[in-house]
Amino acid sequence: MRQRSLIAITAALAAGALTLTACGSRDDDGGGSDSGNGGGGTTVVIGVDAPLTGDLSALGLGIKNSVDLAAKTANKDNYVEGIKFEIEALDDQGQPSVGQQNATKLVANDDVLGVVGPLNSSVGESMQKVFDTAKLVEVSPANTNPALTQGVDWQTKKVRPYKSYFRTATTDAIQGPFAAQYVYNDSKKKKVFVIDDKKTYGAGLAATFSEEFKKLGGKVVGTEHINPDTKDFNAVATKVKNSGADVVYYGGEYPQAGPLSKQIKAAGAKIPLVGGDGIYSADFIKLAGASGTGDLATSVGAPVEELPSAKEFVANYKAAGYKEAYEAYGGYSYDSAWAIIEAVKKVVEDNDGKLPDDARAKVVDAMQNVSFDGVTGKVSFDEFGDATNKQLTVYAVENGAWKSVKSGTYTG
Amino acid sequence: MNELPQQLVNGLLLGSMYGLVAIGYTMVYGIVQLINFAHGEIFMTGAFGALTVYLYILPDGTSMLIALPLMLIGAMVVSVTVAVGAERFAYRPLRGAPRLAPLITAIGLSLALQQAVWAWYPGAKSKISFPQIDGGPFHIGSVTIQTGDIFLLIAAPISMAILAFFVMRTRTGRGMQATAQDPDTAKLMGINTDRIIVVAFALGALFAAVGAVANGLKYGDIDFRMGFILGLKAFTAAVLGGIGNIYGAMIGGVVLGVAETLATAFIADVPGLDKLGSQSWADVWAFILLILVLLFRPQGLLGERVADRA
Amino acid sequence: MELSGAGPVEPGEGTHAWETPDGPRPSARPRGPLARRYDRHRRAVHSALAALVVLAGGGYLYATRPQPERPPATPPPYPSQVVDITYLEPVPSPGNAPTSSFSFAVLLSVESGPSVTVTRIAQPYPGLSVTSAPAAPFQTKADSARKITITMRVTECGKAPWNAGLPFLDVTLRNTRAIQVHSFILGQRYAQHLSDALQVACSNDSA
User: What is the ipTM of this complex?
Assistant: First the structure.
């Protein structure tokens, strides 16, 4: 009896553990399923690292699916002669330590010639060095913290820390000020309460916003750092209400921003919450509820309906039948993956149609000069690895959906 | 504008929630000296039980006045089933084993329950919205109370009163006290200790279920990990109040909730502490309080002296 | 009971014949010629009906099939996607401008698509007003660029953006596709020059 129960418990535990590990390895069958015309050539794997489970999975799955779509498209068109692309998607759960393990895993797979990801800047920080040492190119569709490409002292002296790191998203060095200008000049809000989640992305964004807001003549009437593990923000909400602020800026992501917006309004402060690309998700609207109408978010890129290339992407994405929406970073993820494909193409063509032995290093070099018309506009990278195309859009919650209200282009 | 009354109410509400869950920790510990780390997940499954009743059993558009009691019953049925099942199949076989074995089992069970809900409950891979009570917030002076909090405000004291009556006045309740004092002697006196232990688990689960429904109403959504952090906080509350003491659990919860809220609200105004005042530091202050209390009263606020056991 | 693979010997529940032979037959009613024809050609009618349903369904599916990615004619691009405005340098103000004003040169280029008309150039800051030369509206053809002089006049020094980190211009663009207000963030050099010019203009003003 005793013996049997013990076995039962062990089995239960094992089942639990297995379910846990299953989260990490539940990748899809990759992108090569319908190629059939690769002619049995070489297989190149594009790694994907994003949060595929947990709170941020809506964004993460959008990234994974979009990369998958890029790989499938390249295979279908036989875009690179003799090369078949596959994806290997790993789940980082939004945690830097897991991201680093994934990076090590991707480096160990010799077929991986490029990685798309991650979503979170903090995870990006932990992966950069691993990839750089292995000379494996990493293109993030979503990291917006300026330090990742321009060094920690980016405000005074820009130094690129890692040669193998690129990104297609615009940085918070532009996003924060852009939001500040919109809030101060267009929304005419003068007193802000700034809240962040203390993570690399959120704290960085809140800082660039506050700085510009103060420069413009606005006043920061209060600051607060929330604990992302809780969902009780009532104490913070009461503080916001009593501060007399007419707008709240939140540097962070939608799992916290949604409840925060809701609780601030419930506390009696009927003021809009403004955030960055981290809250630009349909899930934010769901979590913030009806009182979230009028909340604002800036996001990277132009609105999808303005780009013909994006329309095609949206249609193809739909036709491919992915279960999850492509979300905020779908277009950038597709472009990130396509940049890797372009770089691989260049390397292969320069080497008489074969992959060279030092393909990884060659891909890094080729990436620097990649230039093509992607989903989000022209895709190319500057000397820091940042996207040269820097567009931003302000969205507002209206009738339960995000609606674009103003777009801008950085041409400095 | 005076912020204090509102923040006290915020803290009281948060604390009542901790207290409701803490009762489960404290009762089980009081009787079998087991820290049931899966209790947070029993709380979580209760919330999903209530949601199941609302989504899949009641017809669409049922008034919350009718739905709420039924959801509460649904939450209780699920929580109690999980708790009694856990006791029967995971803990009872290990009753004679070293302390560490059931503790590790509890942690494993906690993970397994989380993952089970994650994997099998439809839509549970992200947050699911929980039905809300309509009607605007209530204002008493400068204090605002949300409609969703009314349930918690009423349910917490009533539950406490019922529990006190049960433990003090009924046969089973007295049997529980006896088992808590000395299980072997209690057995010799003819008390069915196995049954008492099951009752302790079930009672704890009942309170967790009340807390779970209150939690859903208060925050508007539930997810498979909602029990983890709350469980840790509730366990802290139980220790703060004196583990093994049911009133202590409630008091500890309220003290912890108020301490967190006040730390968030006011520490930043203390000169020199402005960097340590935000919500991200609230837990630190709460644990400093816990350490201070345990330094001077190792048995917790209302705890009995830990005499000859443990 | 033995399982034999054959059907039930006796009709189970719900397996009885639909028309009970001894029930009151509806055929007591005289049947029209159409019905009689139907009786004779039942199989043919059924197969014809089935064919029709298949055809209709197929036709419907065909008609509502996901359209391949080839819209009949690509509509022209949105103006904000083809226009680029870059900052060049500070330039002396035109002669007729008031003293508290200063000017910058920017380069407006149109990459592709139909010509784009700039209907308005503005900037969002209070305390500043802006005019351009050539004055809006003006048109620019695709694959061409033109230099525009932006002249700003300080209307109220106290409200001017002394220190904006990334100031921008709001430009209203129009082409055959759409009319859009787009912000052009001109970068740090522009921010620096704007800030310097404001210092000068406002010290002149007060002196």
Answer: 0.86
